[in-house]
Batch of 4 targets.
Target 1
Amino acid sequence: MANQVKVNTGNGEFEYPVLSGSVGPDVIDIRKLYGQTGMFTYDPGFTSTASCESALTYIDGDEGVLLHRGYPIGQLAEQSSFMEVSYLLLNGELPNKSELDNFTRTISRHTMVHEQLTSFYKGFRRDAHPMAIMCGVVGALSAFYHDSTDISDPVQRRIASHRLIAKMPTIAAMAYKYSVGQPFIYPDNKLSYTGNFLKMTFGVPAEEYEVIPAVESAMDKIFILHADHEQNASTSTVRLAGSSGANPFACIAAGIACLWGPAHGGANEAALNMLKEIGTPDKIQHYIERAKDKNDPFRLMGFGHRVYKNYDPRATVMQQTVREVFDALKVNDPLFETALRLEEIALNDPYFIEKKLFPNVDFYSGIILSAIGFPTDMFTVLFALARTVGWVAQWNEMISDPGQKIGRPRQLYTGPTQRDYVGIDKR
Ligand code: ACO
């Protein structure tokens, strides 16, 4: 018999089952709470609420652990590839050689976008933020790929998933090309998923583009680090949008909109801008004091996390990758020294120690992306590109769950109670 939790409301005592996952905290199943007690639970920001059952990703924020289908992120980043991790997230197991080859081939066959889609870009201002373009263009995919929008058909769901993963690099690179006024570069399916993205972004028709293996490998690692992160804000947005039966292209566009915010995917852009503002290590203490001042809205961007109360394991890999990219490109960015020093000072400051604020994945990613040549406003786009596989895998998991219901939170209403309308002449 499962454990039970007793709730005494004053109107009686009710028992609720306690459910256990394979690892992680137990959850109290309160689905019958309202029916039995007439009460809701109150949990703004969902800090204590499990919104779904999932077998994709596990995080232990206190220990700094992140597992995809059981595999630690550090091992995947060091030994796997983004295509392999994508297969793992979608299918539950690592592929064998022929499964991986087939999957990679299938994805590469979907990299082109409908030619008519290029007209969408021309409707945007050249100085539009590329995330604004991404929200619009990805949402528009549902107008082009009707044959994969029937969510009750598992084959159509699979095709839509492959299309989204395959087309996202093309769409992201086109957003970049449009902003710099260069022609769009068609996908080159001889290249890897990541090599192809680099070519579509940095290649020009006038010259041969050569993929630098160390940059390709660093970029692939960055994609792996961003592939999924359990029920974060944008993933929950995708699930909530999808719970009404909306098509997958619309759901991923909703996820992109949520990811754009500076408290989520926009943090890598904000973190690099902050490092630029700080500039040299001698200014760090001033900014640390500002971050601690409750009357100052300034926060250390790239620091702190809702779930990690320990070092974000992705930040560890990211920090090492900075050096790899610098070596490969023979560059050095003094902001890296500033970042390292800032981390050291913050990690020894009682405020950050007490609140368990550690660098998150975004703290170092901006430095790498900027060294590779991406402008800051592309950073969140790269995050969206990589997270698409996580969104799609989570969306598939939800749609295939027979117990799936439309997401519909309740509220604690504090507005006026019923009152009579008063005509404008009497107000
Ligand atoms: N700098 C200074 N103080 C901070 C920071 C920070 N970066 N982050 C949290 N705090 C403080 C808060 O002021 C709060 O203090 P209080 O308890 O005295 O009020 C305490 O630490 C707890 O912070 P909350 O905001 O309540 O924690 P929450 O879990 O809601 O927020 C968040 C997490 C949004 C990530 C927050 O740490 C933050 O804004 N960080 C900077 C933005 C950032 O890097 N976001 C990227 C997240 S990772 C990702 O999306 C991939």
Target 2
Amino acid sequence: MCGIFGIITSENTEIGKIALDGIKRLEYRGYDSCGIVSHKDGQLFIKKDSGKIQEIQEKLTLDDLMGNIALAHTRWATHGAPIKKNSHPHLDCKGEIAVIHNGIIENFISLKKELLSKGHIFQSDTDTEIIPHLIEEYIKKGIDFQNSVIKTLKRCKGYGIVICYSKEPNFIIVARKESPIIIGIDRGKVSYCASDIPALLPYTRNIYILGDNELAILRPGEVKIFDIENEVKKIERPLKHVDWNIDAAEKGEYEHFMLKEIFEEPDALRKTLKIPENDLRLFAKELISAEHVYITAAGTSYHASLAGKYIITKFLGNYIQEIECSELENQLKDSLRDNSVIIAVSQSGETIDLIEAIRWARNAKKNVKILSLTNVVGSSITRYSNHTIITQAGPEIGVAATKTYTTQVFSLALIGLEIARERNILQKKEIELYYNALKSTPDVIENFLKKTNHSIEKIVDNLERNANYFFLARGISIATAKEGGLKLKEVACRFIEGYSAANAKHGPIALVRDGFPIIFIAPPDETYKRLIGNVMEFKARGGHIISIVVESDEIISDLSDTIIKIPQPANKYYNLFSPITFIPALQLLAYHAALAHGLDPDKPLNLAKTVTVH
Ligand code: F6R
């Protein structure tokens, strides 16, 4: 939440252009206001306003700022409405110290009171603004800039932050307590920092990941990292190489990232197939020897976990309990035992509720193991995990998760099959059939997307007359129904209930009237026969039935008003992986529904990717 970008070079240059490009690449983290401050010849120049980045650029020409330092910010409002005075950067009373910030400074009210009593004048309603004023207060006492920042940060909680001072033009300070910060160095001449990797891709793939409670001094082409609590101790941090391709973070020929990322699913899955066997084996062994297994995540990653739970449980022979990460502590505080394994799933690896959940579990029991699955190398979750698998979706810029969902389910399926192999519970031939089915999912999706994108537009036209609808399913497909429903809520602003088809008659069916749309997710698995009954129940009440079925399907197709066909064989090996092959249909439906409503599917209302607040 909130994108921050900083740059320092040794010469005055068109720094506004680079800073603007930096925050444009981070716009998925927040887009209700933005701003840039530059430093040139001992003075700070600031431009900021509310609105999307492009609107503000057109109004204020952010890109013509010159200088050797720039700090840029794109905001997702937490404290203070999304209006100009609350947009970042924020300054001290004299306009000499500038700060951009991501996170929430939980103790800001008492600090603000203290500063007000000392005569500081605040311009905004934000928590952030206390930081430049507190630094100013220490500088007034004769403490140098760096130590004033350290003293300030020791008193605050909840930040990823970048700070510059007009009287110290040769360095900027970057620090982190919880919210992510990445640092990049380009050819020894320029240093960058950002809240996420895509902003740095045009300049460098060699990055440092700042840890919690760490502070870095960035000079042009040079970085020194320190521990905030023990500032004399310099931290040696190895450079990490990011092999993401810059094209993956550009829209290219597509109108929106969401559509591009749906079409990238086949390749992302093919790459995910290359997860090292050793990592899979390690996960499998930990899970086999665990007494209790939990799987936890938020949002889309939670739905992937739900699908993964069905697949892994099938081969593990031990029940896996899925728990929303924000509820993990509440649910397990009286029952978590040693020898439990928690699988933590997160695209960003930075979701604060998830990080707190696994930190809590590790502190609660010494022998609890955390196995994490994330898309981002070096993200926070990896630091609190015993082992990590990196899914290979590449950068995902669209706020609504698409390719990262399918790669998560795919990775969990690979773990499931590795467990089957380790436990020796199936004939070799049968394991091969499952593997072949899983390996064919990218081809199934590729064929589906080629054939079906345009016909989904037509289905959307028919649905537009209705405000609400249900997505119903049984068994593993409940994950698909819930995830499909979430996508439509997010990008098309529709109220969709993704629900168990069986449970829907215990209440939700009361809503059904003539023409009420109900989408059934109906792979030909062991739940199919009972789902036929559910389709009939809703049809009998006038429901408009849309079903997602495999190509050879007959019975549910005959009962449906509209059919979406998935080109995959109808057998149990393929059916197990239907959460991967069926979801693109619903992702496309959400995408086209957003367009039909005149909404930007890449920037859903009120949302931001990477939720770093509670
Ligand atoms: C929905 C979406 C969110 C995320 C959730 C968890 O499209 O993207 O629901 O899935 O915020 O984020 P990660 O996976 O980064 O932990």
Target 3
Amino acid sequence: MPRIFSGIQPSGELHIGNYLGAVQNWVALQEQYESFFCIVDYHAITAPYAPDELRRRTREMATSLLASGLDPAKCAVFVQSRVPEHTELAWIFNTITPLGELERQVAFKEKAARQAQVMAGLLNYPVLQAADILLYLADSVPVGEDQVQHLELSRVIARNWNSRFAPEGEPYFPEPHPKLTPTRRIAGLDGQAKMSKSLGNTIGLLESSDEIWAKLRPAVTDPARVRKTDAGNPDNCPVVFGLHKAFSPAATVTEVDTNCRSAGWGCVDCKKVLLESMNAELAPVRARAQVLAEQPSLVDAALDAGVEKARAVAHGTIEHVRDRMGLA
Ligand code: TYM
């Protein structure tokens, strides 16, 4: 079976941008691939954080991933810091990564601009990400669009290592490629940017129907629709129409399109239909999360099984790398 790897930071709750851009795809792909899904706590500590909160959020992330449908019998769900080979390979990769490649990463420049003092870990973040993926020799990485530049760098690192340490014509590390979905970029509720934990414009995967409605009701729509009787254009409504395309059946999306253009429905009517579609998808996820919260041993067992599968592969890769590089 071909192998995939992907990761998610436990720096906040799992939101529907993560779910639609990545996690929903992971649930489908675990059927066809040998799959490794990692909660990347070493990445999360590159931003300011509180230790107890990180521990709690790592746990909550595991619960949300399992509730979303990741099945520990079919894939490995594990926490990055329990597999020390991730940081070992990251150090090794630091020695073959040109500084200029790191300095031009857009995610680095954006995050660095928001911090008073920039730590080296933030700059080296994508090196650890390359180590995550290549440790499992994964050539396919299901992610949202914002991760594409990081994956380009993973390919540079794989090529650099292969050209220095693998025999001519026999590359060891594959060059990993992103596996995107049609919902590769979910807009935030403010309509200004992508949905993101750090921008506070999210809907949490486990939020109740009432909580979701409190956020949907004031969400921006087509600015041309001032009154209910004004005709609208769904293409100018990236937040609400975007979520309809992600959550509603195709027939409902067509109905939304027609009724928006003819002013048959007002924006509140349209949002009520969206809430129904979201509840149809998310109510079973909320119910599974409730079961897991009541039986924490299920989460422990899943994470233990995941780490065991991960270490078995990681160990073999590191042994090979050490041998080729002349490390003792
Ligand atoms: P993170 O934790 O920010 O996001 C996890 C996944 O969710 C996707 N995503 C989105 N997709 C569509 N629309 C959005 N608004 C949206 N917001 C987030 C992300 O693209 C991602 O797939 N650096 C990574 C974590 C990581 C990783 C890895 C990923 C560490 N090592 C190795 C893949 C492979 C990150 O911060 O994702």
Target 4
Amino acid sequence: MPALVLLGAQWGDEGKGKATDLLGGSVDYVVRYQGGNNAGHTVVVGDQKYALHLLPSGILSPGCTPVIGNGVVVDPAVLLSELSGLDERGVDTSKLLISGNAHLITPYHTTLDKVSERFLGKRKIGTTGRGIGPAYADKINRVGIRVQDLFDESILRQKVEAALDYKNQVLAKLYNRRAIAIDQVVEELLGYADPLRGYVADTTLLLNNAIDQGQVVLFEGGQGTLLDVDHGTYPFVTSSNPTAGGACTGAGVGPTKINRVIGILKAYTTRVGAGPFPTELLDEDGEKLRTIGGERGVTTGRDRRCGWFDAVIARYATRVNGLTDFFLTKLDVLTGWERIPVCVAYEIDGKRVEELPYSQSDFHHAKPIYETLPGWSEDITQAKTFDELPKNAQRYVQTLEEMSGAPISAIGVGPGRDETIQINSFL
Ligand code: GDP
Ligand code: IMO
Ligand code: MG
């Protein structure tokens, strides 16, 4: 089983960090293929808790080589501070590899992210303010700066000039902001060259060779399917492709090499930032999910919006990612509800709809149609097998599996590595 993709099946924060870390001990490479430090992955190892943003979660597994692929946008200041934070805690970060083709997030991207959100006013996306959208926009617009540019001062200067000549006009004339000095940006970026030089590699060549030799490569998505710029709830999305195809373009590995695609699926639903969310709960049940589930953002500290499980979304994730398995997380959070509603379809303009509508306005109007399942009150955090779960928890999992279109191969019953029920092996 040489190549697997692990990705979020909802709007992010499904527990990808924990799932990746769990597999990290058995894989040779963990590769981030998109996104940047907008991601916030929490990994709990024993009594230690780690919050990772840009680094692949495999960095915590000693035998595993973490890779930042070409599809990622890298803020070098954040990268270095995350590395030194882990070094201080005794984590070996020396194996990290970074694609020379990955694009950089520079200070002007972060500035533009913040001012453009302010400019949108009520229509804002609610971004993480980390410069993600502007950095990807430059990449597509062919005025981006790549990691490899750090090692050639003359090219770097030309590229920063080309980008800032235009952006400074926008900053001054549209946003009424001071222009950003080209020299200052070039100098700051050049300062990252030496600390990063040793990590840069031809990651595409390396990963393809590794797969051909039968080594196990795990591609770790940031964000989730519904935040995908093509398949998500556009425009309330991130600016990259967390869906399975993104692993191919974002790491330079062909689709024929990928054997398994695992969707991380929370037993209920959360979302951070603006945009439609049919099963959102604005009542005490939503507050209870937020409190028990600890649903507060790892990156921005914002409260996550919470709602019941939505099977329409899970089915959609199965379809657009070609999911082979689900990893259902946070089942323990649902302990204590007498009855648990599950959204099985939507009502849109009086009609029952089973599949996620492609039309934005239809999705905005979608009202959830619920089926209600009986809850359980027993503590499930110690359960190690499916049979040890209370009957109603088993029924909840089986119902979700039937509705979602792919087998649930693992169940999270707590944040720790060992708080997992493994039903089918992923490897
Ligand atoms: P990610 O962005 O997908 O990696 O997810 P986050 O780390 O942002 O959010 C998931 C949160 O749930 C983290 O605090 C995890 O430690 C925690 N978590 C993951 N799996 C489980 C689980 O099965 N049960 C509980 N109670 N917490 C979990
Ligand atoms: P992980 O990897 C949840 C959301 C933001 C915003 C939208 C666009 O922890 O699952 P961006 O800064 O990317 O341009 O913001 O995407 N968002 C996330 N929501 N989890 C994440 O990452 C997210 N990364 C971005 O809140 O709505
Ligand atoms: Mg997160």
